[in-house]
Design brief:
Blueprint (H helix, E strand, L loop, with lengths): L1 E11 L2 E12 L5 E5 L6 H8 L7 E6 L2 E2 L5 H10 L1 E4 L11 H11 L4 H14 L15 H13 L5 E5 L7 H18 L2 E6 L10 E6 L2 E4 L6
Parallel strand pairs: 3-8, 3-9, 6-7, 7-8
Antiparallel strand pairs: 1-2, 1-4, 4-5, 9-10
Length: 226
């Protein structure tokens, strides 16, 4: 994954506010990258640009050979459902649906056959430790379990890149460690590139490489672990 000279600003009360300023970044296949920074530093905007949910004002984002600038909205939708999965901070799970139904959503959107869907969903639920709660409504789960549902839904299409926005913000530290370790398992078992943005510096102990985003500028703060 490559970001080259990415800029993003928003209009507010007639003024232009710079959110990202000349972001350059490389993330390798099968690597967990942690991006640390305070609230308002541009972390969520950066993830949304990588996910194709927002477009940069300037610069390039290239993931698995796809230049996102060259994709129309339909192409970006296919990209998000096959190449790059995004987990928002609020998990975006549907409380009124079961665990199984939530994880199945991307496969339904992709038109996957019912038999294949069931096999994939149950494999993923076993992987994230929720197979026994497949028929439970998500609204009845704990915060840590909801996060695992969101991870399972993101993982069911076997994406090349997994993006997580403040994945432990609503969890106690014990559950936060479990989620961080699950991301490490995912990168090892699936060779997935995992990008985690967080304001909690403690999570950086669980990544391969860490970066700092402050006032729209991204800097590497640790080298890749060997």
């Amino acid at each position: 994954m490559l970001l080259r000279d990415v800029w993003k600003s928003y209009k507010y009360l007639g003024s232009s506010i710079s959110i990202l300023r000349g972001i350059n970044m490389i993330a390798y296949r099968g690597e967990v990258v942690g991006i640390h920074g305070p609230s308002g530093s541009g972390k969520t905007t950066l993830l949304k640009i990588i996910a194709g949910l927002e477009r940069p004002d300037k610069g390039e984002v290239i993931v698995d050979g796809y230049n996102l600038n060259m994709l129309d909205e339909y192409g970006l939708a296919l990209y998000r459902n096959n190449v790059c999965s995004y987990i928002p901070q609020d998990f975006a799970v549907v409380d009124s649906m079961t665990v199984y139904e939530n994880v199945e959503i991307p496969l339904l959107l992709a038109g996957v056959d019912a038999g294949v869907r069931r096999k994939k969903v149950m494999e993923v639920l076993e992987y994230v430790g929720l197979e026994e709660k497949a028929s439970v409504k998500v609204g009845k789960l704990s915060g840590g379990e909801k996060q695992r549902v969101a991870i399972g839904r993101a993982l069911v299409t076997t994406p090349s890149v997994l993006l997580a926005d403040e994945p432990t913000a609503n969890l106690d530290w014990s559950n936060a460690i479990k989620v961080a370790e699950l991301f490490l398992d995912i990168k090892k078992d699936f060779s997935t590139t995992v990008i985690i943005v967080t304001h909690d510096a403690r999570l950086l102990e669980y990544v391969d490489r860490s970066m700092n985003l402050f006032e729209g500028v991204l800097k590497q703060i640790s080298s890749p672990k060997l």
